[in-house]
């Protein structure tokens, strides 16, 4: 569908503040803010509370800018997917031009102000993250390869590294492993969703792994990535941000996550339709807890360290 024909199909409607805010993908922004905050607080350098607040705010704005630009470019496929059909642009509340203007403005604002408030490394990493998500993932990989979510997942994995860089001006083994934790978590998380939302990606023509290689191959991929993820999660516990609390959480959660991946791998393809993909849904729900729990444990370890216990 061309831009002109799509824009002409938008129904008239008066946008509210909530419609513009929805452009920023607030649910995704929650994860961005939390992991960036943990990266900043876990760094071995004390940061003034006002500087920390500004850093997290500008990282959040940068994440929102990425969301607006993603909705601008993907408005055609959002309109045909049930999961995204009610987003502001396909719903006729916001035009593509407005989304583009908001996304570009917030991108420049967030990167410049983060660099001024903290350091140029943090600002540069945020700029690269926005570029990666919008250009590399949204404009190129998403519609070109079934590995879209694997490579594109890097964009969502940068916030803890940016938070760490904002505090220290450096990149460390711990910040790289925090990046890897999110990066390796993304594929099994989204592939589990795709297993019971496959028709959406079929309708939109997005080459998700479930569409191009089938459910059986997707289940194998989920298991492989979950094994690699578990190894990285445990390894993070032996860096300067780890400790007994983190290792306990990591061991328990990764044991549960591995069990879920094995259960998905063992699934009988014929039985999947009959029980409404309950195994995949259970794994997906666990994946929502997985990342927050790991980063929450890192935050607890940082608090324990700060208090000198």
From TrEMBL:
<feature type="transmembrane region" description="Helical">
    <location>
        <begin position="217"/>
        <end position="238"/>
    </location>
</feature>
<feature type="transmembrane region" description="Helical">
    <location>
        <begin position="173"/>
        <end position="196"/>
    </location>
</feature>
<feature type="transmembrane region" description="Helical">
    <location>
        <begin position="283"/>
        <end position="304"/>
    </location>
</feature>
<dbReference type="GO" id="GO:0005886">
    <property type="term" value="C:plasma membrane"/>
</dbReference>
<keyword id="KW-1003">Cell membrane</keyword>
<keyword id="KW-1133">Transmembrane helix</keyword>
<dbReference type="InterPro" id="IPR006369">
    <property type="entry name" value="Protohaem_IX_farnesylTrfase"/>
</dbReference>
<feature type="transmembrane region" description="Helical">
    <location>
        <begin position="244"/>
        <end position="262"/>
    </location>
</feature>
<dbReference type="GO" id="GO:0048034">
    <property type="term" value="P:heme O biosynthetic process"/>
</dbReference>
<comment type="subunit">
    <text>Interacts with CtaA.</text>
</comment>
<keyword id="KW-0812">Transmembrane</keyword>
<keyword id="KW-0350">Heme biosynthesis</keyword>
<feature type="transmembrane region" description="Helical">
    <location>
        <begin position="148"/>
        <end position="167"/>
    </location>
</feature>
<dbReference type="InterPro" id="IPR044878">
    <property type="entry name" value="UbiA_sf"/>
</dbReference>
<comment type="similarity">
    <text>Belongs to the UbiA prenyltransferase family. Protoheme IX farnesyltransferase subfamily.</text>
</comment>
<feature type="transmembrane region" description="Helical">
    <location>
        <begin position="28"/>
        <end position="44"/>
    </location>
</feature>
<feature type="transmembrane region" description="Helical">
    <location>
        <begin position="122"/>
        <end position="141"/>
    </location>
</feature>
<dbReference type="GO" id="GO:0008495">
    <property type="term" value="F:protoheme IX farnesyltransferase activity"/>
</dbReference>
<comment type="pathway">
    <text>Porphyrin-containing compound metabolism; heme O biosynthesis; heme O from protoheme: step 1/1.</text>
</comment>
<keyword id="KW-0472">Membrane</keyword>
<dbReference type="Pfam" id="PF01040">
    <property type="entry name" value="UbiA"/>
</dbReference>
<comment type="function">
    <text>Converts heme B (protoheme IX) to heme O by substitution of the vinyl group on carbon 2 of heme B porphyrin ring with a hydroxyethyl farnesyl side group.</text>
</comment>
<feature type="transmembrane region" description="Helical">
    <location>
        <begin position="50"/>
        <end position="73"/>
    </location>
</feature>
<dbReference type="InterPro" id="IPR030470">
    <property type="entry name" value="UbiA_prenylTrfase_CS"/>
</dbReference>
<protein>
    <recommendedName>
        <fullName>Protoheme IX farnesyltransferase</fullName>
        <ecNumber>2.5.1.141</ecNumber>
    </recommendedName>
</protein>
<keyword id="KW-0808">Transferase</keyword>
<dbReference type="InterPro" id="IPR000537">
    <property type="entry name" value="UbiA_prenyltransferase"/>
</dbReference>
